[in-house]
Structures are given as structure tokens and as C-alpha cells.
Task: inverse folding
């Protein structure tokens, strides 16, 4: 896909739905490429369609690799706060005919696959805090 066509598709999406920063869509495209490369490497060099959960894992790993400890903050700034947000962006791009879809693909494939904040924060926490759920971390740090 040409960069200009992708950019025009994002502009079109943002006219309908402004929940996500344009950078989130460009990162999603990079995360899909990251995931497709990973899948091909594990599949004898053969590309194949990726599932929602596979794309979410690739999205998470790509974010951690590119942004490190700032991944959670940056995704939040871009409006991407849960797995379903990634699914919503994927389906926006499908509607624009930028991403492909199989008949079995559903938005629900992206629902609650993992706790988004935990997935982006835990790798950078000291081990004693990493075991504490995100909802309880602030009280654990304050000693409450």
C-alpha cells in the first residue's frame, strides 16, 4: 500500500471517528507488518492471515520494542487504552479496504485478550510490583 493512500484512508476514518490519534493508525500498520514478519518466520517463510489475538500480541510486542517504558503512556495519549480499541481501528481500516478480512474475523476477536495497561507496564516494573494487578498498583506503591 502506498503511504499516500494509507494517509488518505486515515483522514477519512478521522472524519467519522476521532477517538484515536492518527499516529495510532500508522503504528497499527507497523505492528501488522511486525506481526506478519513474525508469523512468516515461524511458518517457514510463508505469510498467512493473522488472527485478532495474534495481531494484539504483535501490537504489544512492537510497542514494547519501539517505545519501551513509554509505550503505555503513548498509547493512552493516542486513545488506545484496551485491546478492543485496537480491534476498532483494525475494523476502521477494513472498512476503508486498507486491511483484509476473512469471513471468520470479528470485532469480538479483540475483546479482553489481555489487560492492555498491564501488558505495556509490567515488563518495566520491579518484580514485586509486577505481580500486583494494575488496579491495585497505586495503593501498593503508597503502602496502603
Result:
Amino acid at each position: 500500500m502506498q503511504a499516500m493512500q494509507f494517509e488518505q484512508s486515515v483522514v477519512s476514518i478521522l472524519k467519522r471517528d476521532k477517538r484515536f490519534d492518527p499516529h495510532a493508525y500508522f503504528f497499527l500498520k507497523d505492528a501488522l507488518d511486525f506481526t506478519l514478519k513474525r508469523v512468516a518466520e515461524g511458518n517457514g517463510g510463508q505469510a498467512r492471515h493473522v488472527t485478532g489475538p495474534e495481531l494484539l500480541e504483535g501490537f504489544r510486542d512492537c510497542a514494547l520494542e519501539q517505545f519501551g517504558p513509554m509505550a503505555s503512556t503513548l498509547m493512552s495519549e493516542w486513545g488506545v487504552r484496551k485491546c478492543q480499541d485496537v480491534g476498532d481501528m483494525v475494523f476502521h481500516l477494513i472498512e476503508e479496504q486498507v486491511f483484509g478480512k476473512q469471513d471468520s474475523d470479528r470485532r469480538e476477536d479483540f475483546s479482553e485478550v489481555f489487560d492492555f495497561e498491564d501488558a505495556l507496564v509490567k515488563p518495566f516494573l520491579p518484580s514485586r510490583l509486577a505481580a500486583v494487578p494494575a488496579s491495585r498498583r497505586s495503593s501498593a506503591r503508597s503502602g496502603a
